[in-house]
Amino acid sequence: MQIYLNGELQNTACSNLLELIQELALEGKRFAVEHNEMIIAKSKLQQSIINDKDQIEIIHAVGGG
User: pTM of the entire structure?
Assistant: First the structure.
C-alpha cells in the first residue's frame, strides 16, 4: 500500500504505526507521530491501523550541543 510519510508518497507493507516506527528504526528514540491529523500516543501505536493513502507525520528529536 502507499502512504504519505512526511508529505512524500511511500510504499509500505506495515499494517500499524508500531511496525512503521520499527521499520524506520525509531523505536526507543524520542519522536511524535501524527496520523491523519491526529497525534497518536506511543502506547496506541500498535492499535493504530495504517490504510492506503493515510497521511503520517513523524517528528523525531535530534540532540546536539
Answer: 0.90
- 3-state class of 16 per DSSP? strand
Cβ proximity of 2 and 11 under 8 Å: yes
Residue 36, C-alpha cell as written in the block: 491523519
User: Could you give all domains of the chain from N- to C-terminal order, each with its CATH number?
Assistant: 2-60 (3.10.20.30)
- Cα distance between residue 16 and residue 21, in whole Å: 9
Strands of 1-65, DSSP E: 2-5, 8-11, 31-35, 38-40, 55-60
| Per-residue pLDDT tens digits for 4-21 | 999 999 999 999 999 999
